[in-house]
Design goal:
The protein has 211 residues and is an alpha+beta fold. Helix content is 35%, strand content 20%. Strands 3, 4, 6, 7 and 8 form a five-stranded antiparallel β-sheet that branches. A three-stranded antiparallel β-sheet has the order 1-2-5, with no helix packed on it. The longest helix is centred in the middle third of the chain and has 29 residues. The termini are far apart.
Length: 211
């Protein structure tokens, strides 16, 4: 069975300059070719606003820890905006490389995309090794040199690009997916994605937890 070519994201949240360039390219391309991708106007507007703020943080982050932290949080938001656009782009393109190009996204027919991590699947979340902490167990992606980004929100049903999501942990070890300093009896929702040098995979489906 022939593999279908898809629009992909070849950036991690840590590659802030590369991520910003991709967001700018996608924003401009999908604005210019809006008629090709009907129903994406609201998502593109969100990307436009989030990318503009991201670019400002990048420009002012040097030597400023507060702005650097804001930049890193905004990177996750911009990545989520891009992820939200993948499905509508791929639904329209149906494997056509030329149509994918109109979106500004790279495509999986390029030499490197096949190494992008798959979507993370959370098996369970249990009490962590310290008081008011949570340990996340995931299905192994069977890849090395991955960086995991963990986010939480208290908003039930929050979409992948909802502003309530906050990055709480970044680690290179799947055995150290531990969230500390939780609030007793507060229900939170957790998702996680994995990235490597080739790009970042999709965030997992959220899982709820209460410490």
């Amino acid at each position: 069975m022939k593999k279908i070519t898809k629009a992909v994201i070849l950036c991690t949240v840590k590659a802030v300059v590369k991520l910003n360039k991709l967001a700018l390219k996608v924003k401009n391309a999908m604005t210019l070719n809006a008629s090709t991708f009907p129903g994406t106007a609201a998502l593109v507007t969100t990307l436009n606003n989030d990318q503009a703020l991201f670019a400002t943080y990048i420009a002012n982050a040097k030597g400023n820890t507060t702005v650097k932290n804001q930049r890193d949080e905004q990177a996750a938001i911009v990545l989520a905006d891009l992820q939200a656009l993948l499905a509508p782009v791929n639904n329209v393109a149906k494997g056509n490389v030329a149509t994918i190009a109109l979106s500004g996204f790279p495509n999986s027919a390029d030499p490197t995309p096949q190494s992008i991590p798959a979507q993370v699947v959370i098996k369970k979340v249990v009490d962590g090794p310290t008081t008011l902490s949570a340990k996340i167990h995931i299905v192994s992606l069977k890849q090395s040199h991955l960086t995991y980004t963990v986010r939480t929100t208290t908003v039930a049903g929050a979409g992948v690009n909802d502003p309530s999501w906050k990055i709480v942990l970044t680690t290179t070890s799947s055995r150290k997916l531990i969230i500390p300093n939780l609030i007793h009896n507060q229900e939170i929702y957790i998702d996680i994605c994995a990235g490597n040098a080739h790009g970042t995979g999709l965030y997992s489906d959220p899982m709820s937890f209460s410490a």
